[in-house]
TrEMBL record:
Cofactor(s) named in the record: heme b
Name used for this protein in its record: Heme haloperoxidase family profile domain-containing protein
The keyword DNA-binding appears for this protein: no
Record family assignment: Belongs to the chloroperoxidase family.
Species of the source: Hypholoma sublateritium (strain FD-334 SS-4)
Signal peptide start and end residues: 1-19
InterPro entries the record matches: Chloroperoxidase, Chloroperoxidase-like_sf
Domain (Heme haloperoxidase family profile) ranges: 55-284
Xref: SUPFAM superfamilies: Cloroperoxidase
Alphabetical list of PROSITE patterns matching this protein: HEME_HALOPEROXIDASE
Length: 369
């Protein structure tokens, strides 16, 4: 069956805006090819704190077939209807939902969303599963690309997670109660019973040490190296009620944390953060975690306890290098020779990723050819 789609797509390219008319053939009506993905939505207008577990966003357990994965933030947004409850979403839906539901800063929201979508999403249908692969994101791209959803191990999902196991050790996807026990005990030991920055730093190091000791194929290289540290800050940034002030604003109750990590559930009457946490705010906290327990990017070599620093992998503060490495290595490995409309969609998403860097001096990696 051949169907034609006629779409008007607005392309924002540098300073000019070009409006064009496109016709594409595709194989199934259920999966219209998004002829060049639309640009990211603008930032939300009001970034103050507000009730987000409200009457319009009740928690429902996922139903059979709904996708949930390794990210407690996105799982929670789906289970409260800030994202489609089936866990399949467009980048625009994710960028808006993480701002609306948690007050993630726009810069970070856009960067992380495109970084995840490009490697784990379907670039032709513009859909991403927040869990495992599903045919609801459309026909998969040619291998080695997979559009396998955020649960796919490797490009984005990685080792030394807080509450999920390493892929090598088994289930890298679902909540692990044994690992959460460690979250609680480290919070008791370092945070006086709360997950605070001291506990976050100690737990980050402990999770890395555990992987070094038990996973012969442990890898902690960019961009996973960067997301591992950032995700240790996210519970403090986003899972604490925004009405808290002073020292209490950075002390997360483990029982509340468990609701997010295990059940994708906000506490009753939950308010999002009273101010956005974007790249600058998360970056300062990441620096503090790193300074307390510095660990360099590296990997084991096929045996446990062989962790070796990899000097070719960008460090935490090397944000431009991380971006370049992500595009030129991580993405390039998945799409070694994309052609035609797939190549166009890939380059468009890479443009949006670059735009999400904001006013930095990072040079843009040239488009793939
Ligand atoms: C902006 C789009 C986002 C994407 C694409 C994304 C994706 C992911 C992925 C793939 C992981 C798994 C990494 C791993 O542990 O191997 C992850 C982990 C995590 N995410 Fe997200 N995430 C996003 C936003 C958020 C938000 C808004 C929050 C908090 C509200 C959040 C909180 C976390 C936390 C705490 C972890 C660590 C889980 C653990 O280690 O047990 N994320 N995210
Ligand atoms: C997706 O897979 C399910 C289960 O195998 C099947 O019932 C459904 O028809 C498929 N949907 C599409 C759109 O291919
Ligand atoms: C990661 O976990 C998912 C879900 O359990 C599983 O399907 C996948 O095979 C795992 N990946 C690896 C590399 O073990
Ligand atoms: C949970 O994690 C622990 C510690 O890594 C591991 O021993 C256990 O097998 C995991 N449980 C499941 C159900 O994967
Ligand atoms: C891996 O590292 C260990 C310890 O550093 C070393 O003894 C071993 O020879 C290395 N193995 C390989 C395959 O490089
Ligand atoms: C990225 O790869 C492209 C194509 O191989 C190359 O032209 C470019 O110089 C690389 N950029 C960096 C910063 O390594």
């Amino acid at each position: 069956m051949m169907l034609c789609y006629s779409l008007v797509v607005a392309l924002a390219i540098a300073t000019s805006v070009i409006a064009g008319q496109f016709d594409f053939d595709t194989t199934t009506q259920q999966f219209p090819i998004v002829a060049l993905p639309p640009p990211p939505p603008p930032p939300i207008a009001d970034t103050s704190g507000r009730l987000v577990h409200d009457a319009a966003h009740p928690w429902h357990a996922p139903e059979e077939g709904d996708m949930r994965g390794p990210c407690p933030g996105l799982n929670t947004l789906a289970s409260h209807g800030w994202l489609p409850r089936d866990g399949v979403a467009t980048p625009a839906q994710i960028i808006t939902a993480v701002q609306e539901g948690f007050n993630m800063g726009y810069d970070l929201a856009a960067f992380v969303t495109y970084a995840g979508h490009i490697v784990d999403g379907n670039l032709l249908t513009n859909k991403l599963s927040i869990g495992q692969a599903t045919n609801r994101t459309g026909p998969p791209p040619p291998p080695p690309a997979h559009a396998g959803g955020l649960s796919a191990h490797g490009a984005f999902e990685g080792d030394a997670s807080i509450t999920r196991g390493d892929a090598y050790l088994g289930d890298n996807d679902s909540f692990n109660a044994t690992l959460f026990d460690e979250f609680v005990s480290v919070s008791e030991k370092y945070g006086g019973g709360a997950y605070d920055f001291a506990a976050a730093g100690a737990l980050r190091m402990a999770r890395i040490r555990d992987s070094i000791a038990r996973n012969p194929y442990f890898r902690l290289l960019a961009p996973r190296y960067h997301t591992a540290y950032a995700e240790s800050v996210f519970p403090i940034a986003f899972f604490i009620d925004g009405r808290r002030t002073g020292a209490e604003r950075t002390r997360l109750d483990p029982a509340v944390a468990r609701g997010f990590f295990e059940s994708a559930r906000m506490p009753p009457d939950f308010w999002r953060s009273s101010s956005p946490w974007g790249r600058p705010e998360v970056g300062i906290a990441v620096d503090a975690l790193y300074r307390a327990h510095p660990i360099s990017p590296g990997s084991n070599n096929g045996t446990v306890d062989s962790y070796t620093h990899d000097p070719t992998s960008p460090r935490l503060h090397q944000f431009c290098e991380m971006y370049t490495d992500y595009v030129n290595v991580t993405v390039r490995e998945l799409y070694p020779n994309a052609k035609g409309v797939l190549l166009a969609a890939l380059n468009k998403n890479l443009d949006y990723l670059y735009s999400a860097l904001g006013r930095t001096s990072c040079p843009q990696v040239p488009p793939f050819v």
